[in-house]
Amino acid sequence: MIVLGSDSAGTELKNHLIDFLKENGYKYHDCGESKDYPDIAEEVCGKIVSGEADKGVLVCGTGIGISMAANKIKGIRAANCSDYFSAKYTRLHNDANIICMGGRVIGQGLAKELLNVFLNTEFEGGRHAVRVDKIKKLEDK
Predict the structure, then answer these.
(1) Is 16 one of the catalytic residues?
(2) Is 81 a catalytic residue?
(3) Helix boundaries (H) for the chain
């Protein structure tokens, strides 16, 4: 399942991404909108950490603040993406479980492409698993 959330600056783009998920048969849960992005980031991340969802989408004005908030939560690897290469390789090499986007930064078409590649790229593992394990260890410091 994919879980989504946004602040008010990201709601319009998030709703277009929900349309994409519906059109492509994905199971999803919309956590809605919060005026303060740390609050919705915490809610979305909680569903991933608990195992209720596999991946998440967070949208604010730039994608920056909401990704910073999400990455404070143990077990979350959130990546703010605005290009295809980053969206693909954050899954392939970093095993990111949340993609963040900026509703004021990217258009709907690009956002759908980024979400599509994010959802359909598997983690490569191997030498990258060693690095992801090191990221996980940083959470305990």
Answers:
(1) no
(2) no
(3) 11-23, 37-49, 64-70, 84-92, 108-119, 127-138
Percent of the residues in the chain that have a pLDDT greater than 70, as a whole number: 100
Catalytic one of 31, 45, 81, 93 = 93
**Where residue 137 falls among pLDDT bands split at 50, 70, 90?**
very high
pLDDT 10s digits, 29-42: 999 999 999 999 99
Q: Which of 60, 81, 100, 128 is catalytic?
A: 60
**Containing H/E element for 7?**
strand 2-7
Backbone angles phi, psi at 29, to 5 degrees: -135, 125
Q: Which residues neighbour 136 within 8 Å (Cβ) at sequence distance 6 or greater?
A: 75
**Is 0.90 surpassed by the pTM of this model?**
yes
Residue 133 buriedness (CB in 10 A; 0-12 / 13-18 / 19+) = exposed
